[in-house]
Specification:
- By secondary structure, this protein is α/β, with parallel strands linked by helices.
- It has a single domain, classed as Aldolase class I (TIM Barrel).
- About 30% of the residues lie in helices and about 25% in strands.
């Protein structure tokens, strides 16, 4: 059944909620929804206390290593880590306490061509059970295309049943941000959620656009309970006004979702 997945998004060493599409390059005008006064470890400790597993720490650019490490230390094996993950550092992040590493851009060359050999080497190094492939994407005329480099550059890889089934052989889960709606609190991409529920053969977490507690029930209905939901900017934990963290906890702790 669909679960709420927590997150910690890091930018320049601080916990922030950012409109994903504004992450173009270091000199771009960043659209920031919230900058927390709490360190990353504060949120990790809270997730640990509430026994919320499967959350992710995402490093949005440089300057986040120390903050990420404090979060992982506060909740060992309870958080996934993404942002700048590659063959050379994946094992180190697992040693630092991450349950999984999340990888996107490393799997592509500068032109957006998928590099199968890099995926194979990564799986050989850490094992598929420790790897999450981030297939965050943008819409196009035919569906959705995976985007890399802070969700700005489209790759050659499209979200298709064939892509999902092929890559599922090499990882434990998928993480998929709908980059066009991420951070905007204007609604989830319902078509993408339904598509993932139909075609995704492994555990998948969707992120992007959540704006009410009812979105958990919507994702569960559209995906037949096969897709989890990450909530960021709308959450009161990150300065949002639309969704209460306490309600997300209640959702996860329910034993019967049949009426959702």
């Amino acid at each position: 059944m669909t679960q709420f997945r927590p997150c910690i998004d890091l930018h320049a060493g601080q916990v922030k909620q950012i409109v994903g599409g504004s992450l173009e390059h270091p000199t771009a005008t960043l659209q920031t929804n919230h900058v927390s006064s709490h360190p990353a470890s504060y949120f990790a400790e809270r997730y640990f206390t509430d026994q919320l597993g499967g959350g992710h720490v995402i490093q949005l650019g440089p300057g986040n290593t120390a903050a990420a490490r404090t979060a992982l230390a506060a909740y060992p094996q309870g958080l996934q880590i993404g942002g700048g993950i590659q063959l050379q550092n994946a094992a180190d992040w697992l040693t630092a306490g991450a349950s999984h590493v999340i990888v996107t851009s490393y799997l592509f060359d500068a032109e957006g061509h998928f590099l199968v050999d890099r995926l194979e080497k990564l799986v050989s190094e850490i094992g598929k059970d420790k790897l999450i492939i981030d297939l965050s994407c943008r819409r196009n005329e035919n569906g959705w295309t995976v985007a890399m480099n802070r969700w700005q550059k489209p790759t050659e890889l499209s979200i298709t049943p064939e892509t999902l089934h092929s890559l599922a052989q090499s990882c434990d889960e998928f993480l998929i941000h709908a980059a066009d709606v991420e951070g905007k609190c204007q609604g989830i991409d319902t078509e993408l959620v339904a598509y993932l529920g139909t075609h995704c053969p492994i555990v998948c977490t969707y992120a992007g656009g959540a704006r009410s507690i009812e979105d958990l029930a919507t994702v569960e209905r559209l995906s037949q309970g096969r897709v989890d939901l990450s909530i960021g900017s709308a959450l009161d934990l990150f300065g949002g006004t639309q969704i209460a963290y306490a309600d997300c906890l209640k959702w996860n702790r329910r034993t019967d979702h049949s009426h959702a």
